[in-house]
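Schema walkthrough. Field components (list of strings):
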Amino acid sequence: MSDTGLLIEAMKFAAGRHSGQTRKGRAGEPYINHPIDVADTLVRVGGVTDAEVLAAALLHDTVEDTDATLDQLATLFGDRVSTLVAEVTDDKSLPKEERKRLQVLHAPTISDEAKMLKLSDKICNVVDVVGKPPLGWTDQRRIAYLEWTARVVHGCRGVNQRLEECYDMELTAGLKNIPGHA
Ligand code: ZN
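Field assembly_structure (string):
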């Protein structure tokens, strides 16, 4: 498959799998906007041009949040894309707090490409939690979430300076924006 073909197929697959799902913010945006944002941030901020990494970004939540499987991704998009998605997929059988603890622990052990994907994912999540907060989240919960992303990002440093700088800027600006942060 050509690089552009791969990207279109990945976008189509992700859009199909996430159909009916919405983001947690007030506007109820379609979920697919998030993986598109993550891929866009990799390109625009990170300067990433590797189509398989970008396809993995488009697909990064399909195994965690839909009934898609890693085997399916391997068949449709190849082993490298499937492995990248596996590296950024939480084990949903574990309780949420344990999954969050493991993300911090595992981040330094994943591949450089998966670290870039995770950096981009955390940038997008910080921007969303600051600018389009999930319904029902208190300021304290938003601050705790941002502080957790910083611990995950700590383990992803050293692979893409522009993504790191963008994350640091968004985090600092975000924390300033949320009332109640000392
Ligand atoms: Zn994500």
